Amino acid sequence: MNKVDKIFNSSSNAIEFSKAYFEYLKIVFERISLEEIQNFVNVILSARDRKSTIYFIGNGGSAATCSHFANDISIGTRAYDNPFRVISLCDNQAIITAIGNDDGYEKIFSQQLRVLLKEQDVVVSISASGNSPNLIDAINTAKKMNAITVGISAFDGGQMKGIVDHSLHVPTEKGEYGPAEDAHMVLDHLIANYLMRYVKKLKSHG
Length: 206
What we know:
alpha/beta; 2 domains; Rossmann fold; 5 strands; globular; 5-stranded parallel sheet; 206 residues
């Protein structure tokens, strides 16, 4: 039984559940490495400097987070003079269903990367479990193509955490998809807000 299950079982109503859930989120956030956040920011800034593209990949709720990351970093930063080139590979359903139908769901990201990826581009994989076969296949494809790989994970990090070049890990108990994905979205907004202001400051000093 994970922490969220325990919170529910000890709560008599939604007010008590909400209070305990928010308290647990505080604990989850305190576990996240600030150095890993800084490292991920550095990866994004370096990609911008060399005009590389950053590709986000994920399934389910993580796919939605990928779309949100792509929007917030590419458009939300308003860095149009020297943009962050960020794309979510979760968003073209025609391509995803074509690959899924012809080659299998485990290939929906790796086949796209085979077409789009250039050396020193960045592939960011978001997954709570870190064990999705299509993400592992995509990471291995990216590494063979000399791209930089990042894993944004939760639970124990799974297989993904051990094979990516850079990890941004949200330590939670297994099965805690709510807190894991909550934290991933906070990381999106935290990082995008930082980058927007970083770029604005650079421009004002330029």
